[in-house]
Amino acid sequence: xxxxxxxxxxxxxxxxxxxxxxxxxxxxxxxxxxxxxxxxxxxxxxxxxxxxxxxxxxxxxxxxxxxxxxxxxxxxxxxxxxxxxxxxxxxxxxxxxxxxxxxxxxxxx
Length: 109
Hints:
Elements: E1 15-18, E2 23-30, E3 35-43, E4 53-56, E5 66-73, E6 76-83, E7 95-98, E8 107-108
Antiparallel strand pairs: 1-2, 2-3, 3-4, 5-6, 6-7, 7-8
C-alpha cells in the first residue's frame, strides 16, 4: 500500500490510538537519533490512493517520550507513563488532549 507525502520516521516505543472516526494517531516514540515529541494522524476512511500522514505541530514544548500507553476515552486521548533517558512520567500525572481539535488544547492534569 502506498501512502502519499511525508511519513513518520521509523521508531519504537510509540503508542497508537484509532478513533471511532477511523483516524489513527501515532504518538511520540524514539528513533535511531532521539526521543520524539510529535503526533501524526492517518485518516483511514479516505480512498486508498489518498492516504496521507499529517504531522500535528504541537503548541507546547513537551519532552519526547517512549514506552508510554495511549488510551481513548470518548473524545479524549490520555497518555500514561513513559519517559526518556532523563525523566519518567509520574503515574499521578496524565497528559491528555481532545480530538478532533487541532490539538491546540494540549494540557496536563
